[in-house]
Amino acid sequence: MVYKLFCSIVFVGFMGACAHKTNEYIFDEVESVKIDESQIVLTRFPSEMKNITDSIVATINSAQSVSLYNIHSGKNIANFDLKKTNFDSLIQNTFQKKHADTKKYLYSNGFELNGENYQLTTFDYSNNRFWIHASVIVEVHHLKEDAKTLPKHKNNEKIIELQKQYDSINIIEMGYLNFIFETDNDFIIKAIHPLYGEEILKENNYFPYYNKGFFVLNNCIYTPIGKMDESFNRLENKMNVAPDNYCLAKINLLDAEKIAYKLHLSNISFADYTLRDYIEARFRFKEYKNSFLFSNGKEISEIENEKKILDKKILTTNEWIADYCFLENESLVLITYEIDKKQPFDPSKPVFPKYKIKIIDPVSSILLKELVLDIKSSTVTLTKNKIIYLDRDDENYSFKQINYHEK
Amino acid sequence: MMKIILSSKSIIMKNNLCIAALCILLFAFGCTKKSIKNKSYLHVLVDSLPIDKTTNIFIYSINPNDCVNCLYGFSQINTRLSEITNSKIYILAVDRAIEKNELMKTSKGINLYDSINKVVLWNKNTFYTVGAAANKKNVAGVSLLTIYNYTTDSIVYSMPVKEISNAEGLMKYTN
Questions:
Q1: Considering only CA atoms, which of B71, B39, B52 is closest in space to residue B144?
Q2: Contact B98/A114, CB-based, under 8 Å?
Q3: Which residue of A35, A162, A394, B75 is 20 to 30 Å from A194, comparing CA positions?
Q4: For residue B31, how far is the Cα from the chain centroid?
Q5: In the Cβ-directed half-sphere of A403, how many Cα atoms lie within 13 Å?
Q6: What is the pTM of this model?
């Protein structure tokens, strides 16, 4: 009898441990706090926002600064920009030295209305370091014709005309030089990494898309890459989704010659993506259980072993992933959004996506909870216990947060 | 018999006169209607501003959030265009006072204060409406240079600033 009772207790305990995750979650009321604009004036919604700690987020404002805010007080804690950077000197000591024989780079101050000739596009925060991507506009003077430069201009009528008139022509084009600025928590610059890897990628017909996001691990940057073909010429063109193609590159910041390719397109679907979809999709890198995950806006896969974590079939056709995270109970939480692309664009009446929060059992792909969110913003991020987004009225921007937890 | 014929003639003459009078009235009404045709949005806008309207007016619709290389080219021609004496209107796609104050404080390349024959407007709606009026194919939000003639109420030139390679080609529109 005792033995049977003991077995029953063990059985019940075992079943309890194996029980499905609950679908009982509580979402609190929206909390709102006005954003402090005493140091940085927002001219539009930040293009990027990530949580740094439970109380602090970092945003990219107007492509000119990375700013830290306390989401409970709205206070702007610190800011990083490159206004005092001597880009002339930086370019001369990096890219110009590397390409002294073939190119001449000229940097000039930009149009003062919107800042300098650089953009801060995205960043990563890991191991108490900020890694900030800066894209700098330069004039590239090709000192001599080379096999790599001229072919892409061969169909340009004006160049064809010039070639008929002159023995040789030098091409000047606008280009972008890319850097990663490594800083500490106080935004003190610790190192500047010029991203030379682009040249190596081009040899394999890839180009990097740093501004879609990246993460840094052991002095290597993992970044999205695209295939250099006609699929990237027009917004409506379908992407080249050959299964052997890769969607990420791992570039060594200390030695750009060392490049590895990661995550085949066979293990993360870009099917039916147009170039526009690729540009607008929100790519997200996350660390989970000592492995790194990548989301292309529709699916989530592990980068190293290429195991698919989330299949797009759980989303509707027009539904995209804005952000995601895992809870303590290993449920997967998604913030998704839908945009009606058929609706004509009217800037006087901005239309924001329709957001939802979805809580999923990633093993069974069962939807545990779904809730429509009343968010009128393009800047949203997710943590294990809150949804953080920005809002604005006629005069002020504000942080809003919705706390949630399992019942 | 003669009386009847004469009466008929007078009736015909009266009818002809009525028809002629009706034609004259219709012609006059038609002319009048043309003269009260609605003026364009730009005409109404320029009409309200204290600037010289006798020569071509240069209208700069600027979105400070435009892509960096979109405005970069404009910076190259800005110095040259600032030398012309034609009236200028700057329209900034900015509504909030805090943003306006920040731009006025930090902008070095463009003087964002009103002066003689120069007006600066801060209004997103005006920016988008002028953009739509100036260039039907314009993607909303793109910074534009539009050259407008008030007398003929017509746009003589309009181009996104990122597509303007140099200012010399614009000199033919100046005084």
A1: B71
A2: no
A3: B75
A4: 24
A5: 9
A6: 0.82
At A148 the pLDDT is: 56
Contact A108, A68 (CB under 8 A): no
What pLDDT does residue A32 have? 95
Tokens encoding B6: 């004469």
CB interface of A with B, residues 48-77, below 8 Å: 62-63
Residues 6 or more apart in contact with residue B76 via CB below 8 angstroms:
B166
- B90 contact A CB<8A: no
Distance CA A38, CA A75 (A): 9
Phi, psi of A402, rounded to the nearest 5 degrees:
-120, 110
Tokens of A162: 């010039």
Residue identified by tokens 């329209």 is B91
- How close does chain B come to A253, measured CA to CA in Å? 26
Paired tokens of A131: 């890694």
Test A114 with B65 for CB contact under 8 angstroms.
Answer: yes
Per-residue model confidence (pLDDT) at position B35: 46
Within chain A, how many helices (H) and strands (E) appear? Answer: 6, 27
Q: By the CB < 8 Å criterion, does B125 face chain A?
A: yes
Those residues with Cβ within 8 angstroms of residue A348's Cβ, 6 or more apart along the chain or in another chain = B124, B125, B128
**What letters, b where the CB count within 10 A reaches 16 and e where it falls short, cover A41-79?**
bbbbbbbbbbbeeeebbbbbbbbbbbbbbbbeebebeee
Backbone angles phi, psi at A231, to 5 degrees: -65, -20
Encoding tokens for residue A307?
Answer: 């195991």
- Shortest CA distance from A108: residue in chain B: B72
Interface A-B, measured as beta-carbon pairs within 8 A, has a size of 65
Within its chain, how far is the Cα of A47 from the centroid? 10
Q: Are A214 and A126 contacting, i.e. CB atoms less than 8 angstroms apart?
A: no
Segment holding A185, helix H or strand E: none
CB-based contact, A115 to chain B, within 8 Å: yes
N- to C-terminal Cα separation, chain A: 37
Calpha distance A76→A40 (Å, rounded): 8
- Residue A388 reports pLDDT greater than 60: yes
Contact B72 A137 (CB under 8 A): yes
pLDDT score for B67: 65
User: A59-84 pLDDT, tens per residue?
Assistant: 999 888 999 999 999 999 999 999 89
Nearest Cα to B146, choosing from B86, B79, B85?
B86
Instruction: Measure in Å the smallest separation between the Cα of B78 and chain A Cα atoms.
Output: 9
If you average pLDDT over each of A3-12, B29-38, B142-151, B156-165, which comes out highest? B142-151
pLDDT at A19: 47
